[in-house]
Amino acid sequence: MLESVKNLLKEVDSFTPKSKEELESFRLAYLGKKGKLNGLFSAFKDVPNEQKKEFGQAINTLKQNAQAKVDQYKDTFNKEEKDNDIDLTKPVTLDNLGSRHPISLVKNQIVDIFNRIGFTVSEGPEIEDDWHNFSALNLPEEHPARDMQDTFFIQTNPDVLLRTHTSSVQVRYMENNQPPIRTLSPGRVYRNEAISSRAHCIFHQVEGLYIDENVSFADLKQALLYFAKEMFGEKTKIRLRPSYFPFTEPSAEVDIYWGLKNESDYRITKGTGWLEILGCGMVDPNVLENCGIDSKKYSGYAFGMGIERIAMLKYGVTDLRLFFENDVRFLKQFSSL
Length: 337
Ligand code: DAH
Prior knowledge:
Helix content is 42%, strand content 19%. The protein is an alpha+beta fold. The mean pLDDT is 91.
């Protein structure tokens, strides 16, 4: 009897299954309900007392080894099956794909719209000097219009500051390039303002600049109408209101017609139906001269818009702070592309 257990042990130890099926019949033959081990366990009671110990140990070893063999090969076959299952041509499942920030989405869209009419992107530093942020833009020291934009200065040096608008990039671009100029400068700007649902100390702007011979206000108007339609839909209406910026003459603010369909429209348009989206104008000849461009030969227009503003309109966001808090519940609502 003991002899036959020892033979079975040899059989188990030398067994190497070639397939999952073979392993399963091995399992049934040894460890199944009607398998050899159960048979041996029931035969145990008839084993003479003095052999019980040795016999018991032998069948326990047999059981353990059989189980170990099953476990060992089960993993191997399962893994093989999985590996064979990998289909490299299958589309990937995009379960945990991140999303793009709404400010990037809108920025990209603005850039794309102006790209189509020949504008290319240029960038400038966020830490600026007085000349590029103010003086060159017709805002000399002590000019009251400097108060329109509360400035963060770096340490105590009044010449080094965080740019308050992307108009500084216009200056840098004109200093380094001669007309024809068609450039778009997106970027982050800083102002010392109290944070609320409508204002933040950091926000984003896109600046546009177009300089060539014989550029007129009509060109500006057409470019902005094209932009508004591309951004907000074919039926969008715009109006230009006279305004003041030191770096443009004449200057205007552009409103789009938002309508008065519901209560929130009344609130955001202050009951007028119109909503301001950007500032613009014909570049002041002084600014051209400051940047080394012949103002007798060339003229041009410039505009600047707040990206948050456009994003709020486009996505119906009523609190600007959401753009900066990076709450994933907010962010994941936007497209990833
Ligand atoms: N820089 C202005 C601002 O921050 C916006 C602006 C207005 C830019 C008119 C321009 C412009 O280029 O022509 O409010």
